[in-house]
Each structure stands twice: as C-alpha cells, then as structure tokens.
Design goal:
- The chain is α+β, with helices and mostly antiparallel strands and 430 residues long.
- Strands 6, 10, 11, 12, 13, 14, 15, 16 and 17 form a 9-stranded mixed β-sheet that branches.
- Helix 4 packs across helix 6, helix 4 packs antiparallel against helix 7 and helix 4 crosses helix 13.
- It binds 4-amino-1,4-dioxobutan-2-aminium adenosine-5'-monophosphate (4AD) and magnesium ion.
- The site of magnesium ion (MG) has 3 residues, from strand 16.
C-alpha cells in the first residue's frame, strides 16, 4: 500500500515518510504545524521544540507555500485534526525551495485569475476534490457498462459529417479537404451496436458554442451507450439505472471530498429508480401552470429546466418532443408523427440537462427523406444509411455529459471547474 495521506489509517503507530508539498504552516511558541499535501489529501505535521534538533525546529522560518518536502514521522490518531490523523515530525527534507511568491495565496482571487492559473489552481483543496469525484464518476461509468455487458467501441474524432446540427461544428483542415471535430460519437455508436449488440462510446466531443454560459464548454466528455433491439422505454430504464448507480458509487466512495465541497449529500441519497417520466406536453403544462411564458414547440431554456426540476426530488426524464426541436435521426412516435421519440434528463437543483437521447429512425427511406429535409449532404451519410439496409432493427441510446454530471454531483455552480483544463469561447490556455 502506498504511503500516502489517504492511507494514513493503515500506518497508525508507525514511522513513515510522506512526499509532498507545503500547503500551509503556523507557529505558536514552542510548537509549529506544517499542513502537508501530497495530492491524496492534507495532513497536519507537528514539530515540537526539544523533541527535534534545533535546525529542524528553525526550518519553519524558511518554508514557503509549495516547497517540495519529504516529511518523516510517526502517525497517530487525532480526531480534531483534518483527516483524523496527525504526523509527529522527526525529519524534513526539502526537495525544492520556492523562492518566488506562489501566485495563489489564502486571499480571495477572482475566477479569471484562477482560471489563468489553472495549472496551479488544481493543487488547491476544492479543485482537487472536484477532480477526484470526476475520477470516481468515470470509474462508475465504466463499471456500470462492464457489469451490464456493454462493449467499449471508440468512435473517431475527425469526421466528415455533422450529428447534432451544423451550427456549432469545428471545421479543420484535413489534407486537401476539410473535416469536422466530432460533436457526438452516436452515428458510429449505432454502427457498432449492430456489430456488438450493446456498446458504449466514451471520449471528448467538440462544439463551437458561442454562448458564454456556466453550462457550456467547447470541448467536453460524453459517454454514449447504444443498444440494438431497444426502444425508448427501455432506453429510459437504462438511463435511470445508470445515473442512480453513478450517484450511489460517489456516495459510497467520495465522502471525504463531499465534506471538503460542503455538498449536501442528503439530496443525492434519494436518487434511486424509478425517476419521474413526463412528456414534453406535460412539461409545457407545468411551465404554464406556474405562470411562465413559454411558447409550445421551442426547446427549454435554463430557467424552464430549473422550474421543471424543482417539481421533483430526482432527475426528471422528458420524452416525446416536437420533431422540429430534435435532430434528423430521431424516430417519430407511431401515435403522433409530429413527435420525436427523444428523451432529455434534467438534473435536480438547477444543474440542467445531463442526458440527451432517444430511439433512432430505423427505416431507410424515412431516414433518407429526413437527411434531405435537413439539407444535409448525402455522401457522408451513405455508410449510415447502409445500417438501415442490412438487418435494421429498433435501436436507441443516449449521451450523458460528464462535466454537467460532475457539476451536479459535486454541487459546483460553473462547469469550467469540473474538467481539469477547460476549453471555452475565450479560453485555450493553460
Ligand atoms: O443532447 P446532446 O446534444 O445529445 C447528443 O449529442 C446525442 N447524439 C447523444 C446520443 O444520443 N448518443 O448532448 C448530450 C449531453 C447533454 O445532455 C449535456 O449533458 C452534454 O451532452 N452537453 C454539453 N456539456 C458541456 N458543454 C456543452 N457545450 C454541451 N453540449 C451538450
Ligand atoms: Mg440535448
């Protein structure tokens, strides 16, 4: 087992060396404290005059924030200390002494300054905790699909066609022609589902979002399961089981992080299937009954989503949308051809849409008609149409936005803090 701060309970009563950085320090007379961080957590290290040689005791005056240090000492239980353990110092080795003032001090900094120092900001307690929860969410995603016998089938980043409309495509030079950065792996996911049955695609996707909102990135991660022989209802069954599993795994493994983030975990404990399912029409009625001026046939804006989410204590799934609000590939409802068999899942507490998905059009001629109707070039969709020629079956899937999910579960208001190095309209560095 690694000798790290997260594992201290296993080393109680033993003398060990922790390798890390100076997070903070404070002195009171004959005793001083070094708060050490090693990337897995924080621990208070105690130096007592008389118990150590003078040179070590005097080291306090020289130490700066982010000095790289290796600290040796014995581990003891201390319920009042962060993490519940403390290290009684016998030796400190300075690996690198910081001579310039560290840009991120204890004083308040503005978000833009912190984002410009993202490469350093990741070391701070809160940011570190968010990325740790992100790691656990990714693990839960992979475990869920493994347990449910899905195969990971990656899709390409360079593509010749648009998936989610043509307005926010990044176009790049591709030798003597142009290509697009993918907006979603779904179309390849559909091909893969016909080859493997149940699959998932998991990777970064790109959208030239010109809007500056707290929910939009230009590069974000999406996980997209796709299932052959699956309809909209079964798709929603998977979506709720999947999201509930992710939340439960975080509750089981991320309590230390939730404490740092001051996340009210009571709100997460109720995230257990079944989730409420309402139609688009029912959602519009809720908005109107609450006095919102919403015009039937448009997509929900952030305030609409927040009001809808407030009606429930679990994520809500909204299905059967006016076809014009949804992409060309959506299958229409047999009962009403004006409705598309799409579903959006809205997270509680105002975090907005975390899932978009639905059942796909599986008829060749109808799909061809829709591609034409949406004015999309036919050539790059030829392979996609093939799927409707050779053993076409009902199939469905969805895409979960990783960063929006991290934002909701960690209680982080702005999506830019949920990805290590965010890309937005105005930010390409660090
Ligand atoms: O609803 P979207 O656009 O759905 C699709 O792309 C489908 N092709 C997925 C599928 O059926 N396989 O995007 C899915 C999710 C959204 O619900 C949202 O969580 C997230 O991706 N998302 C974004 N996250 C961050 N920044 C953006 N600009 C996002 N756009 C969408
Ligand atoms: Mg959507």
């Amino acid at each position: 087992m690694d000798k790290t701060i997260s594992n201290l309970s296993h080393f109680e009563g033993q003398e060990i060396t922790l390798k890390g950085w100076v997070y903070n320090k404070r002195a009171i007379g004959k005793i001083w404290f070094l708060i050490l961080r090693d990337g897995t957590g924080l621990v208070q290290c105690v130096v007592v005059k008389g118990e150590v040689d003078e040179a070590l005791f005097d080291l306090e005056a020289d130490l700066n924030q982010e000095d790289a240090v290796m600290v040796t000492g014995s581990i003891r239980k201390e319920p009042r200390s962060i993490g519940g353990y403390e290290l009684g110092v016998s030796k400190i080795e300075v690996v690198q002494h910081v001579t310039e003032e560290y840009p991120i001090g204890p004083k308040e900094h503005g978000p833009d300054f912190l984002m410009s120092n993202r490469h350093l900001w990741l070391r701070s307690k809160r940011q570190n905790a968010i990325i740790r929860v992100r790691h656990r969410i990714v693990k839960a995603i992979r475990d869920f699909f493994d347990m449910n016998e899905f195969t990971l089938v990656d899709s390409p980043m360079f593509t010749a066609n648009a998936v989610e409309g043509t307005t926010d495509l990044f176009e790049v030079d591709y030798f003597d022609r142009s290509a697009y950065l993918t907006q979603s792996g779904q179309l390849y996911g559909e091909a893969s589902a016909m080859a493997f049955g149940k699959i998932y695609v998991f990777g970064p996707v790109f959208r030239a979002e010109k809007s500056k909102t707290r929910r939009h990135l230009t590069e974000f991660w999406m996980v997209e399961p796709e299932m052959a022989y699956c309809d909209l209802e079964q798709d929603m069954d998977y979506a709720e089981k999947f999201v509930a599993y992710i939340v439960q795994q975080c509750l089981e493994h991320c309590q230390a992080e939730f404490k740092i983030l001051e996340r009210d975990t009571g709100k997460l404990e109720s995230i257990i299937p079944p989730f409420p399912r309402i139609t688009y029409d029912e959602a519009v009625k809720i908005l109107h009954d609450n006095g919102l001026d919403f015009s039937y046939g448009s997509d929900f804006g952030a305030p609409d989503e927040t009001l809808l989410a407030e009606q429930f204590d679990k994520p809500v799934m909204i299905h059967r949308w006016p076809a014009d609000t949804k992409p060309f590939y959506m299958k229409r409802d047999e009962q009403n051809d004006d409705l598309a068999l799409g579903v959006d899942m809205i997270a509680p507490e105002g975090y907005g849409e975390i899932i978009g998905g639905g059942q796909r059009e599986d008829d060749h001629d109808i799909l061809l008609k829709r591609i034409r109707h949406h004015d999309l070039p036919l050539e790059p969709f030829k392979w996609y149409l093939d799927l409707r020629k050779y053993g076409s079956v009902p199939h469905a899937g969805f895409g979960l936005g990783l960063e929006r999910t991290v934002a909701w579960i960690t209680g982080t208001k702005h999506i830019r803090e949920t990805i290590p190095y965010p890309r937005t309209l105005s930010r390409l560095e660090p």
